[in-house]
């Protein structure tokens, strides 16, 4: 490769340390991989939690990061879905492979071809709705259940896209969010919105669904804190639905007791990287559904905030994210 190009990476040298910028070799893609020259790196709440706690970090120095977009530089011998020069987005699986080359916090990253798309999407939202909650997929044309889906944290990035996918599937969609986000989330497809700051948010959501004759049976908790999971359990315990399910995006807190009669499950977006049946599902999402939905406007990318300055600004971006961001994806321009 051209020696004038450099692969600058944000290295995490030790637990709870701040990132430092170092140069490392430009990776070479394997037979089923794609080498991407990153132009935008997406930051996630899980990233700063991994930095502080060491979660999913087996050794140091480490490179973190999952979401990225950029230009394909090279492809492996078995790759046919993209080619050099294509603009792509994808999910880097370094958290599972434990390979530094497979993390996004650097200038060049190798991705699995099955997790690379010419257009973006949040896989977590798809798995949350149609894998964990077992709701009918938009492409199935199946009759939606006579029940309501409540999305707690509608203004999060996962919440934003979950609303849109749920609407595509014909579901009755409720969501919680600060009142300032209600108009926007309504435009994405939420039928009813509730301000989670309200003292009566639980009672209001349950009463609205019962009055429609579509009790809340499904909850997607995109925040998954002890407080939010306690709230959604209260929602379902007051619902007249027979089968009740909570899908959550983070581990269940040890201090919170699970209630009888409510099924709970955590979404694992990383399964599309290593479970055989899920690898195929991930490929279907990235290569088939997503381009069609974005081309037709059925899925609208969420608002975003760009932080300029390259990988050296990743630490600053994570501090912004940790301080609290809603209805925005924070990305670093590389």
UniProtKB/TrEMBL annotation:
Keyword Oxidoreductase part of the UniProt annotation: yes
Record-stated family: Belongs to the zinc-containing alcohol dehydrogenase family.
Protein name from the UniProt record: GroES-like protein
UniProt cross-references to InterPro entries, sorted A to Z: ADH-like_C, ADH-like_N, ER, GroES-like_sf, NAD(P)-bd_dom_sf, Trans-enoyl_RdTase-like
Keyword Oxidoreductase: yes
Molecular function (Gene Ontology), one example: oxidoreductase activity, acting on NAD(P)H
Origin superkingdom: Eukaryota
Domain Enoyl reductase (ER): 10-332
UniProt KW keywords: Oxidoreductase
Complex and partners: Monomer.
One Pfam family here: ADH_N
Signal peptide bounds: none
């Amino acid at each position: 490769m051209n020696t004038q190009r450099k692969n600058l990476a944000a290295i995490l040298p030790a637990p709870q340390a701040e990132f430092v910028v170092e140069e490392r070799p430009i990776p070479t893609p394997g037979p089923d991989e794609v080498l991407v020259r990153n132009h935008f790196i997406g930051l996630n709440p899980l990233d700063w939690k991994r930095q502080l706690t060491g979660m999913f970090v087996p050794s140091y120095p480490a490179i973190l990061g999952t979401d990225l977009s950029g230009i394909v530089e090279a492809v492996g011998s078995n790759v046919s879905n993209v080619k050099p020069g294509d603009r792509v987005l994808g999910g880097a699986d370094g958290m599972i492979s434990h390979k530094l080359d497979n993390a996004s916090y650097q200038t060049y990253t190798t991705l699995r071809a099955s997790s690379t798309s010419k257009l973006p999407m949040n896989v977590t939202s798809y798995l949350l709705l149609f894998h964990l909650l077992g709701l009918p997929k938009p492409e199935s044309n199946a009759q939606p259940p006579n029940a309501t889906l409540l999305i707690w944290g509608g203004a999060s990035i996962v919440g934003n896209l979950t609303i849109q996918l749920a609407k595509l599937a014909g579901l009755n969609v409720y969501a919680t969010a600060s009142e300032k986000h209600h108009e926007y989330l309504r435009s994405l497809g939420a039928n009813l919105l509730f301000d989670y700051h309200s003292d009566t948010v639980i009672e209001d959501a349950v009463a609205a669904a019962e009055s429609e004759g579509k009790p809340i049976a499904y909850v997607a908790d995109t925040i998954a804190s002890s407080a939010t999971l306690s709230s959604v359990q209260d929602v379902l315990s007051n619902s007249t639905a027979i089968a009740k399910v909570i899908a959550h995006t983070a581990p269940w807190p040890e201090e919170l007791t699970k209630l009888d009669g409510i099924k709970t499950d955590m979404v694992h977006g990383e399964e599309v990287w290593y479970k055989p049946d899920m690898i195929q599902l991930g490929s279907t999402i990235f290569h088939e559904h997503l381009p069609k939905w974005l081309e037709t406007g059925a899925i609208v990318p969420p608002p975003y905030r760009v932080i300029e300055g390259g990988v050296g600004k990743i630490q600053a971006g994570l501090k912004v994210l940790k301080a609290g961001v809603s209805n925005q994806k924070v990305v670093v321009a590389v």
